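Lab notebook, bench 4. We co-purified these components, and the gel suggests they stay together. Before we commit to crystallization screens, I want a quick structural picture of the whole thing.
Request: model the full complex, all chains together.
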Amino acid sequence: MDKFSYVNATSLKQVTSLLSDSRWGEVMVIAGGTDLLAELKEYIETPKTLVNLKTLPDMDSIKADANGLTLGALTTVSDIAMHPTIQQHYSVLSQAAASVATPQIRNVGTLGGNLCQRPRCWYYRDETVNCFKKGGDMCYAVDGLNKYHAIFGDGPVYIVHPSDIAPALIALNASLKIVGPEGDKTVKVEEFFTLPAANLIRENILQPNEIVVEVQVPAPNPNTKSFYLKAREKGAPDFALSSVAAVFEMTGKTCQHANVVLGGVAPAPWRSPEAETVLTGKTINESLSMNAGEEAVKNAQPLTDNAYKVTLTQNLISRAAMMAIS
Amino acid sequence: MASWGEASQSRLIGKRITRLSGKEKVTGKAKYTYDINRPGMLYGRILRSEVPHATVTEIDLTDAQEMPGVRAVMPLIEAGRKIRYQGQEIAAVAAETDDIAKDALRAIYVELEELPFVATEADAMAEGAPQVHDDWNGNQSNPSRGGQGDVEAGFAEAAVTVEATYHTPVQTHVCLETHGHVVEWTDEQNLTVWASTQAVFGVRNDLARRLELPANQVHVITEHMGGGFGSKFSPGVEGLTAARLSRMTERPVKLMLTRKAEHLVAGNRPSMTQHVKAGATRDGRLIAYDMRGHGTGGTGGGAGFTGPYVYHVPNIRTERTNVAVNAGSQRAMRAPGHPQGAFAMDSLMDELAEKLGMNPLEFRRLNDESEVRQAQYTLGAQEIGWHRRNSVAGSGTGIKKRGMGVGSGQWGGGGGANTQARVNINADGTVEAITGTQDLGTGIRTAIAIIVAEEFGLTTEDIIVKIGDSAPGLPAGGSGGSQTTPSVAPVIKTAAANAKQKLFEHVAPLLQAPVDDLRIGTGTIYVASDRTKTVTWQQATGLLGQETISEGGEWDRELRQGGVAGTQFAEVEVDTQTGHVKILKIVAVQDCGLAINRLTTESQINGGVIMGIGQTLLEERIMDPMTGRMLNANLEDYKVPGTHEIPEIKPIVFDTHRKVSGVGEPPCIPTLGAIANAVYNAIGVRIRELPITPDKVLNALAEKA
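Here is the predicted assembly.
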């Protein structure tokens, strides 16, 4: 990696002012570093300054009350996975966190980092490849090898967003707090992520001088059943070929409300209103669950090597729906 | 005639003995080459080509040479020469820290004229493809043809035939410790090398020749090493470069390959594609086999594979070609040619059996001339519960479907006369066994201790085993071909027997008995005809005074035997919604003659099976036709088995005789066919292309539906 200076953060104000004088990539923030360090080593990112967020106070806690969860951005992935309240009432979130990488990575990787991590695309991660995401003029996955790439999102970049936690948070209607030099703002997690059509290079709405500081998750209805299903080639560590974060409000076998958000299939976490519409207000049975899967993928646009993801995603959605009644 | 004695008489041989260095390894105390640090040591790194095919037009080392902390920079290719694969060496640096070395590589200016390339076999075989080698005609070697009998006549007799294409991709070795060396010139003429190698004397002789030094002035040390699998027989460009950087700087140099380089240039198992047509008679006998196949060993040749395999076919016609592509060269890899050949053959056997309406195990029995494997079929079938297998493939109900399969293998592993050893008995009772072999991970260190301890009536902890060092001047062969134990064990055994005889000569007068009436007890020597006459080991060795007994041995052919058979059974569960294959159990019945150490023999079998699982379900070098680059030269996208992939493995040490055979390679062979056949038995769709990943399973299921 190239040399950089290293600053321990003392306050959010200091962090945003360090960031605000810079262009993208000149000053970068680091917390767990499980993604950023690899990018530095591969010269994908070459910042002049790294700002260590781990020295900020009070940003690594989980607060759980009747209204919901407040998660500091520095909360580790394992703390989320192991938290008893999250395991009990927000199982989609705990399952998603537990499916991330390895215990070692979960122990240092943070919530904020998981949401802001960069794509795993093998072209993007190759220093010598100058693709759309690095200011180039093509997405190599289109004519190249694209087994792990997107089936949704309409291009022109076909990366998939690698976060497991993001689909779970969106399915739980979570919001996140962003701090910038002008103060803070809160947005829905769903609105945090962007598609390549809006921004070829970045995967979210953060400006160079902004950071994510907190995630808020409203308490789900007590009749909620939620699941995170993640298909991968290797048990661990492996990123999702496709994943489904599903949150169902149930009355008996009837689904009062469904949130279905997909991971590993689009450049951003991908909500499936088609699956939600099929399931909402209906009594779940095998044929309805299959119908939800079919509807969800009917607009999928697979590339040469990833048509299997269409079937896989369809099946995962059906499986998640069936789990709601088992 | 020399023998290992009866099993009932053995105290240690054939028992389960804990690996001698096990504790050091799991506590991190064992020093691998990677762990060696010498005073004043520099760090070496190699600049490699990022493009697969190019002509070098200019290399300028100036900027790198002028960087603070850089002590040496040397070119490894001249302007005007060609780059033929990604990862090919361009230049090397030695610097005060590894970080400086890495920065210095980036300061080297290289100008290349890029050339069209071929990254895949298909591209290489296309009409008018760019040529990898200027002096070839196209990218394919002349076919090598083989056969016997009359294939056409055979097919005329066939009641059923199967025509299919089977493919296995390139697999890389993924040594946990990457290739590398620490080198130190003790003076201008003497070089000490810590090498991660499976051939201590091979590295010594090769470096001596290349550096024009007398062989005995190169001292190679390999106390522990982290995996070779056939890829670590020579010092390679990196070893020679480390030695040259060290000479230039007069400082020790450590140069270990990066994980990326390890994938790109440190060897691989070639791919295999075979188009095969085979026939069997109504009564279930293989009658004809006609195969055309090819594989790529990258820029190298040697993409051989077995076919037909194991089973007897009277009429055979084969044609194989090597396809050159712009990618790193193959090297020997655990049972070269066998796993891929076995995958194709065992898949083919099941396809034929199904057409005949026969149980695939019965079909194998009819065509397998090995009595050993016939017995293994019975044992393995019992252990896996073969009767539970689906009689109709894919007939299980539910989303997760189970199935069973079987596969077979064979290997040599008879050793050779390549080892010198000495066994010393000191007057204070201590014992040393010394030889220039190396422990590739097979447990030879422990096996040597067991053999000597058995001979002397001592425990393994009483024996100091000195291996992995060329200094004592006791050469041994490289650890390849499953030859280490059958090469080393007979020499150690006879050396220990010779030393024991010498000790008996000292003891005989004291016990007033003839030498041939003396026997070894547990820590004692006694007179066979009068067991009241006895001395302790300490008393006996005390008689040596100033003398040390030091005896060599010879490779007694009677103590070893080549030719082992193996069979494996797999039970799998396939998730038909996700395409994920979960292996539930593998039974590995492995013929191995006398297992000196049953515990490490079982470890060998486990390791082979795990490697076979990787090749069947996960591993593939992915070459990008567009950029000519390996897209997964890491351990994220090049996936090797982890704990989730490893099922219950039941290793069955099938010891049919009391002669030593090597067993390092054969257990990785039958795994592929057993799993692939089990997947078919589960879902009723055959996947003829490895690895069997979810995409292939889902696509196959979709085609069936």
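The mean pLDDT of chain B is 97. Worth comparing against the SEC data before the next meeting. Chain B touches chain A through 31 residues (CB under 8 Å).
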